[in-house]
């Protein structure tokens, strides 16, 4: 039976941390289950930390330090991992960033910007530069890299959450980029849809008033935890976990989905818009 896949510790702080954790555990002759015994966490949780896919909670780090006798090493490094995971993202997005990596489904309503998980590099850069006009190039690059790193979630073979996005037609009709770049951005979305990685729906301009006339919202469901809702404004964001409130958001999203175009018709509209941008026929 083949051993566990090697972890590339050079890929970043979380994977370096995870590789060190696995090395220390194996040196101690412990299985993942044996290491987490006496804590509130399971072996699968520890496995994801060792692969650099999940942040180590401080109480689990303290438990690991006691069992492995590592003199507080893992507890001290928790903050480094947290900062590395947040690189390029606002502090208020931390909980949502962690949650989307574990989600079974992500349903997003995006009325003003294409979702971060779907953005190409030029689109992400345009958004960051518009929001932070005085930012230095290094700061812009860090934030763009952070946005693009999130998109790896849709490329991974380990986890494939169902990502369902309802996008306002304005997002594909009003060019935020040069025509060729807009065409590439829309083709990127179309490619993800054609490969069955996402389900996009377009809310047409003709829909008029609709059941979800507010800002960006993402609803996440999980295999072993209650659903969450993340809402975001210009300079703030909030994760909601009250069951009644989450259920209300889910109902509103279902109603929104009902007035949007079908996935098939939406994909056709996205492809048509991309072709128009390529041929210089787009309507500003």
Automatic annotation (TrEMBL):
PROSITE patterns per UniProt: HTH_CROC1
Domain HTH cro/C1-type: 21-73
UniProt-listed InterPro entries: Cro/C1-type_HTH, DUF5753, Lambda_DNA-bd_dom_sf
Gene3D superfamilies found in the cross-reference section: lambda repressor-like DNA-binding domains (1.10.260.40)
Classification via SUPFAM superfamilies: lambda repressor-like DNA-binding domains
Protein name: Helix-turn-helix transcriptional regulator
Provenance organism: Streptomyces oryzae
